[in-house]
Design brief:
The structure holds two protein chains of two kinds. Chain A is mainly alpha-helical. Helices cover 76% and strands 1% of the residues of chain A. Chain A has 20 helices and two strands. A two-stranded antiparallel ribbon of chain A has the order 1-2. The longest helix of chain A is centred in the middle third of the chain and has 31 residues, at 152-182. The relative contact order of chain A is 0.09. Chain B has a domain at 87-128. The radius of gyration of chain B is 30 Å and the shape is flat. Chain B is 70% helix and 0% strand. The longest helix of chain B is centred in the N-terminal third of the chain and has 25 residues, at 52-76. By secondary structure, chain B is an all-alpha fold. Chain B has ten helices and no strands. Classes of the chains: A mainly alpha, B mainly alpha. Chain A binds chain B through residues 16, 23, 63-65, 67-68, 103, 105, 108-109, 112, 115, 119, 125, 127-128, 131-132, 134-135, 138-139, 141-142, 145-146, and chain B through 142-147, 150-151, 153-154, 156-158, 160-165.
Amino acid sequence: MLSSKLSCVYPEIWLFCLSCLALMTDLYLKRWAKWTTYFVSQAALVGVMFFAFGLIGKKPSVLFYNAFIMDDIAALLKFMIAGIGFFVCMYSRKFVFESPHYRGEYFVLCLFSILGMLVLVSARSFLSLYLGIELFALPLYALITMLKDDSIGPEAAMKYFIMGALASGLMLYGISLVYGITGSFAMPEIATILFQNPALHANPALLFGVVFIVAGFAFKFGAVPFHMWLPDVYEGSSIAVTLFLGTLPKLAAFGFAIRLFSDTFLALAGYWQGLLMVMAVLSLLIGNVAAIAQTNLKRMLGYSTIAHMGFLFLGLLAAPQQGYVAALNYIIVYTLMALGVFGILTALSRSEYEIQNIHDLKGLGVRYPWIAFLLMMLLFSLAGIPPFAGFYAKLFVLDVLMKAGHMGLAIPAVLLTVVGVFYYLRVVRVMFFEVSDAQPVHAYRIISKPGVALLSLNSLAILMLGIFPTPLFNVCSGVFAWR
Amino acid sequence: MKIEQVVFYIFSLLAILSASMVIFSKNSVKSALFLILTFFATAGIWMLLEAEFLALTLILVYVGAVMVLFLFVIMMLDVDIASLREGFTRYLPFGLGVAALLIIGLAYAVGGEKFGLNVITPLSIQPKVASNIVALGTVLFTRFLYPFELAGVLLLTAIVAAISLTFRSRSQRIAFIASKQIETRKEDRIKLVQFEIGKKNL
């Protein structure tokens, strides 16, 4: 049936059509442009959530001559991406509208980037994978310089652009090598060729290709040793864009990793596991240690992201099935935590008085006890302190890691996590126990009641997932059940 | 001599002549124009090989877009030809050596051994296939439909991103406002200061 098969692509089609509509409304409806663009964008994301939710639990189907697959993982990730995107737009609306540099293209570019992520998580061939990753990264280059008038924004965007171009080049080169050896772009075909010809596994050209693709992947999503751009970009972009950058790409990264490691190069697991081990330990080390030295809050969170990517890699390399489940669980929990933290920072910022440094949070505990409490919960969760979801996410990853016999990796991971607790707690200390002499940055902003409600919902969800971690874990393992 | 041969020799001669004129012409704008002529001649040869899509793309992309940009840049830059020509005789042996190497390499890679008449079947004998525009279009809109559409979306995104970064609305633009200029009076702009001799005024 054509129509039932086509329904697998409804999320993408719907999102693309509504992005174009948002572009048009912004152009022609002068007076109400801001609100119509915003509502069309939100409608687009709600529609994607609706369609993706309907696709969860269906039989996997492949479309467009092996270029596109819709399975449970893709459907769940699409649902999550659209849902988190919905909250990202909602959190950043006020900040974005008030910015003197606001343009309607802000939301449109966000939508296009999300479209790229949707394409990425359901890629079935390297061609669509590459196009997805470009479509997801290209709008970000423009978004980083948007809403800002200083020189640091374009600098960050240039860094990200050049690094991104380099990463694309590396990845394309790797893909061309793999294509040269196997003669195919389609992931299942490459996988079967690799399984049927063990002689190929020692082929240096093929291994080079895999290494280049993994390096491109690490570049795009910021893992050590390809992480240098990430703190600069977090610092250089305005907080609303950091909110976008800090949450959604992580989900897309997981989709990418599953397509790459599980769907394509499973036969070469012995090789890429070694790569991931090195990158995971280095990411944990450099992310946690460098974050201690930061006084800039956004840079600190950038380094913390790098450390969390290390945990994702640990989950991926652990064991095929359970490792992916733990990694997916981890990444969903991490995205929710990052959404909350950056959401609170966005809510406290105005385009002129943006929260930049840790000491900007001085006195928050006195002025906004509830918001400070929410932020404290999120930071505890990021640090991995027990009653919160972050703890269980880390626990699951370490559990599968030890079951797979990687004791040597679990020990440094735990030790470095303990190191990481320091810089999260420092922020909490500044919030509650330091009083600023001058008017603090957050004094210029009053958070609306619905905003407080949303942020509370977000943070309490982390607490709930910490107390009852099984439902999310069951969803994650259900997604991988058919494999 | 058959008509194809006549056409081939005309276009080849034209291509070689205009290509050498690209190098020998004293004016860089003329060089660029000769390069366009070279492209036209090459497109003619490709047309003779029944590669009509490539021929059309060459004219559309290279002549229509790339060379226009090229000419634009040449006109913007003030290139001093005399300084470029300095040391021509000094570098000539080296240049000739590189050219000779290139010719040997080309002869090895695409010489008669691999692309001679005894290896390649003449076009008239080859089975008649649909024109290559049709073949390409069929593949693009069936097998590669999804990547093709995605590439379109990617280009649209690039346009939106580039315009949103550079576009300034009327209120943000630096522009003359004629009425304000006319209405300005001498008193608004000029301040007359009385100097006293012997005192420090400034």
